[in-house]
Design a protein that fits this description.
The chain has helices at residues 34-40, 42-45, 95-98, 100-104, 118-132, 147-155, 237-248, 255-265, 297-306; strands spanning 7-10, 21-27, 52-56, 59-61, 64-67, 135-145, 167-171, 191-200, 203-204, 220-222, 233-235, 271-276, 281-286. By secondary structure, the chain is α/β, with parallel strands linked by helices. It is globular.
């Protein structure tokens, strides 16, 4: 409230105001800008039937890089305790959105974004886009890399926004441990396709490790980028996709899910994928430890969003 927020909208090739288009919201990584995602998705904007790409920008200030408030970024301590190790890198607290008393409280040492209502901001942007463009309203999607991918779990579970998004596609982003939450009972649950990087506990993405590297805690991982003993705690990829699968169906794996996973793997030989619920939930791991979005991801997500090939919308 009272904050100046910005976003970038890219119209697709051949857009006409009387022809409905899909919309992809694209959330940039920590310490980045909207242009990061518009550039990454430019291959989709160039398609004759491509989507309208909307790239919001996170809040930043001196000592606090731009990011997204969600999935535990400003809620530590949470259900499982603090979301970071002692000695984790500390960022400035955003007084305008968090309040002075909260910023003076030692318990906020694990916070690393503003406390802004980024879900509300996203929905305001969506309303503006729907009033300015011809939009296919049942084809609203979202993707994000790193912290942008983490924020998708907030969008997909918040009662205000979960029903507005048909599907989400996080890239190398996971919710903090204890903050993997379900949308309201009885409401729609967005489909989910996630890509993460890692082969085992010692060879994986250092910022968002998808595989547990914490003894006795198989559902949690600890990044090795933000502190001498590790930084933030996350839900693992297996824990996250299994949870999301249970929201979609009672029987996680079936023949259609296997076909969808195999089709996903055909986009690159570095991928190992598991499908759930007829392919409405898919998790893939890359056989690398790099923290960067894969170049083939835009084409893969577009197929998943539209339910093309072996995917089912």
């Amino acid at each position: 409230k009272g904050l100046d927020r910005v976003y970038t909208t890219i119209s697709p090739e051949g857009y006409k105001p009387d022809s409905p288009r899909s919309v992809i919201f694209a959330f940039h990584p920590f310490s980045s800008k909207a242009e990061y995602m518009t550039s990454f998705l430019s291959v989709l904007s160039a398609k004759p039937d491509g989507p309208i790409v909307v790239a919001p920008e996170g809040i930043s200030m001196l000592g606090l890089p731009s990011g997204w408030n969600g999935a535990g970024s400003t809620e530590s301590p949470g259900p499982l305790g603090e979301t970071c190790q002692p000695g984790t890198v500390r960022f400035s607290c955003h007084v305008p959105t968090c309040g002075l008393s909260a910023c003076l409280n030692p318990s906020q040492r694990c916070w690393w974004t503003s406390c802004a209502d980024d879900v509300g901001f996203t929905l305001s942007v969506l309303e503006a886009v729907e009033s300015s463009y011809c939009v296919q309203r049942d084809h609203i999607f979202a993707t994000g890399f790193s912290a942008g991918g983490q924020f998708l779990f907030e969008l997909a579970s918040d009662p205000r926004s979960a029903s507005r998004f048909n599907a989400v596609f996080p890239l190398h982003g996971l919710p903090h441990a204890g903050f993997l939450r379900a949308p309201p009972t009885g409401g729609s649950v967005p489909r989910l396709f996630g890509i993460w990087a890692g082969v085992n506990a010692t060879f994986q993405d250092p910022q968002y490790p998808p595989i547990s590297n914490m003894k006795g805690k198989p559902d949690m991982s600890n990044d090795v980028a933000y502190g001498p003993q590790g930084g933030y705690f996350y839900s693992t990829e297996e824990n996250t996709t299994a949870f999301w699968g249970r929201l979609h169906c009672a029987r996680n794996q079936d023949a259609q899910a296997g076909e969808a996973a195999t089709f996903a793997q055909s986009f690159h030989d570095e991928l190992t994928c598991v499908g759930r619920c007829s392919g409405r939930v898919i998790g893939c791991r890359r056989s690398t430890d790099v923290h960067e979005p894969p170049s083939y991801a835009p084409e893969l997500m577009w197929h998943f969003f539209l339910g093309e090939g072996a995917f089912h919308a």
